[in-house]
Amino acid sequence: MPPFNYPSVREGGADPREMARVVNRLNSGKINCTTNITLTSGTVSTVLSYPIITSESFIDFQPLTANAEVEWASGSMFCGSQTNESATITHANAGSGDRSFRVLIIG
């Protein structure tokens, strides 16, 4: 699930104050589109499950650890397949268990 629970507009609409709060958060970049993942060690893929993923989503990664930076810099990490609510990340088979990333999902 999203790490933050920003307010959204209720079905059927919202009063002007609620709408302004939602729009102001969007304008300041507070959109529920990030999560974190740690790559599975000893395998060549890791499944990312997240409710906003679609087959058309753009997914990008920000390394959070030194081993994650090494993985990212190697150029071998990519999204092999995407479906609704899930993406398979293909990566190197490494023994390090701390390859952690912040994930950006748009669209």
Whole-angstrom Rg: 16 Å
The number of helices is 2
Annotation, overall tally of beta strands: 6
- Poorly predicted spans: none
Q: Any idea what the shape is?
A: elongated
Sheet with the most strands, sense and barrel status: 3 strands, antiparallel
- The string of secondary-structure elements, in order, is HEEEHEEE
Distance between the termini: 16 Å
- Judged by helices, strands and strand pairing, the structural class is alpha+beta
Fraction in beta strands? 25-35%
**Strands of the largest sheet, in order across it?**
1-6-3
The structural domain count equals: 2
Helicity, in percent? Answer: 10-25%
Structural notes for this entry:
It is a single chain. The model has no long low-confidence stretch (mean pLDDT 88). A hairpin with a 2-residue loop joins strand 4 (78-83) and strand 5 (86-90). This protein has two domains: 1-32; 33-106. The strands form two sheets. The chain has a three-stranded antiparallel sheet with strand order 1-6-3. It has a three-stranded antiparallel sheet with strand order 2-5-4, with no helix packed on it. The chain is built from two helices and six strands. It is elongated. By secondary structure, it is an alpha+beta fold.
Nutshell version of this structure?
This protein is of the alpha+beta class and about 110 residues long. About 20% of the residues lie in helices and about 30% in strands.
List the helices and strands and how they pair.
Layout: H1 16-27, E1 34-38, E2 45-49, E3 58-63, H2 66-74, E4 78-83, E5 86-90, E6 100-106
Antiparallel strand pairs: 1-6, 2-5, 3-6, 4-5
